[in-house]
Amino acid sequence: MIEDLKALYFDQLRDLYSAETQLIEALPKMVLKASNSDLKDAFSDHLEETRGQKSRLEEICARHGIAPEGETCDAMKGLVKEAEKHGEETPGGPVRDAVLIASANRVEHYEIAGYGTAKCYADILGFDEDVKQLDETLDQEGAADKKLTKLATGKLLRDGINEEALA
């Protein structure tokens, strides 16, 4: 039961842990579905970051004497299900790559919102070490989002994956 901000914070940590666990399962599938080598690399790189993010959540939970398991992130479950559906319905190539990027951007935005909220709660509760660790993850999530957007739109004008998908 959530009766105070501390309990809500711990619930949010468990939700994020579930989200990261689900993403660790989903990213290898996205690597396999991607055709663009830079996109494959971006997903592979983010898989390693995600493992580190999950580990940081385990450290935070251990510091507070709580188990990270116990919550299911239904939002991530839906985002992964949608990504899988669209990935299956779209033939391989640039259009599927654009679909994968759109799905991954949605995931990153969800995670940015979740980690931003958790960081705010940690700050209010005076959990300074948690704030530092959550901020590190927020930086990684923001960088991943920017990298995906750059792949989609290219460096100048629209010479990225979205341009290839027009053909």
UniProtKB/TrEMBL annotation:
CDD domains: YciF. InterPro entries: DUF892_YciF-like, Ferritin-like, Ferritin-like_SF, YciF. Coiled coil: none annotated. It comes from the Bacteria. This is Protein YciF. It comes from Haloferula sargassicola.
